[in-house]
C-alpha cells in the first residue's frame, strides 16, 4: 500500500470547488483541506505506478498552477520479498551459459 499527500496550488480561485471535486473523483484521492489557493489531498494506491498515475491525473486538471508531493510512503515488503526470491543465481548462470547468438534485443538504443 502506498500513501502520499500533495499540495495543489490553484491558478484560478473561482475554480477551487470544481477542482476539489475533480480531485476527489480521481481513484484513490481524497481532499482533506482547502485554504486560500491551496488544496491538500491524500493519494492511496496499491502500487507506486498507481500513485504516479493519480499524481499525473491531478497535474492535468484544468486550473492547476502546481502540484507538489509533500509525503510519500511505500510498503516495499512485497517487492523486497520478490527480489529476494527471484533465483538471480539461476538467471545469471543461464545467461552465462547462453550463446551470444541466442540473445535477442528488441529495444531501441539511442546515443
TrEMBL record:
InterPro entries assigned: Chaperone_NapD_NO3_reduct
Main location: cytoplasm
Keyword set, alphabetical order: Chaperone, Cytoplasm
Compartment(s) where it occurs, according to its Swiss-Prot or TrEMBL record: Cytoplasm
GO biological process terms on file: negative regulation of protein transport
Keyword Nucleus carried by entry: no
Annotated coiled-coil segments of the chain: none
GO cellular component, one term: cytoplasm
Listed GO MF terms: signal sequence binding
Keyword RNA-binding among record annotations: no
Classification via Pfam families: NapD
Highest taxon listed in the record's lineage: Bacteria
Record function comment: Chaperone for NapA, the catalytic subunit of the periplasmic nitrate reductase. It binds directly and specifically to the twin-arginine signal peptide of NapA, preventing premature interaction with the Tat translocase and premature export.
Family per similarity comment: Belongs to the NapD family.
Subunit structure: Interacts with the cytoplasmic NapA precursor.
Protein name as catalogued: Chaperone NapD
Record organism: Campylobacter hyointestinalis subsp. hyointestinalis
Amino acid at each position: 500500500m502506498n500513501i502520499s499527500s500533495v499540495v495543489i496550488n490553484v491558478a484560478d480561485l473561482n475554480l477551487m470547488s470544481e477542482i476539489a471535486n475533480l480531485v476527489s473523483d480521481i481513484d484513490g484521492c481524497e481532499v482533506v483541506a482547502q485554504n486560500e489557493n491551496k488544496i491538500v489531498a491524500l493519494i492511496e494506491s496499491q502500487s507506486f505506478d498507481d500513485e504516479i498515475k493519480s499524481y499525473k491525473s491531478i497535474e492535468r486538471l484544468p486550473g492547476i498552477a502546481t502540484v507538489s508531493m509533500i509525503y510519500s510512503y511505500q510498503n516495499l515488503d512485497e517487492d523486497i520479498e520478490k527480489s529476494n526470491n527471484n533465483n538471480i543465481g539461476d538467471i545469471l548462470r543461464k545467461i552465462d551459459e547462453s550463446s551470444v547468438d541466442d540473445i535477442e534485443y528488441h529495444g531501441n538504443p539511442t546515443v
